[in-house]
Design brief:
Elements lengths: L9 E6 L3 E6 H5 L7 E6 L3 E6 L6
Antiparallel strand pairs: 1-2, 3-4
C-alpha cells in the first residue's frame, strides 16, 4: 500500500487528519448520483467506508 504510481488517475482523501486514501477516479465516477457512502476493502485490515458530506454529483 502507499501512493499509486499514476496519481493523476486517483482522488486523494485525508481521513482523521493524517491518513491518506487514494480512490481511482473511475470508481468515484461510477457512483450513483446522490450516493454518499463508498465502501472499500483493505486486505488484512477489513472493510472501511468513506462518507461524503458534500456530494456535488
Amino acid at each position: 500500500m502507499g501512493k499509486p504510481e499514476n496519481e493523476e488517475n486517483f482522488e486523494v482523501f485525508t481521513v482523521d487528519g493524517d491518513i491518506k486514501v487514494y480512490v481511482k477516479k473511475e470508481l468515484l465516477e461510477a457512483m450513483e448520483a446522490g450516493e454518499k457512502v463508498f465502501r472499500f476493502l483493505i486486505p488484512e485490515y477489513g472493510w472501511h467506508y468513506l462518507v461524503f458530506l458534500n456530494n456535488e454529483k
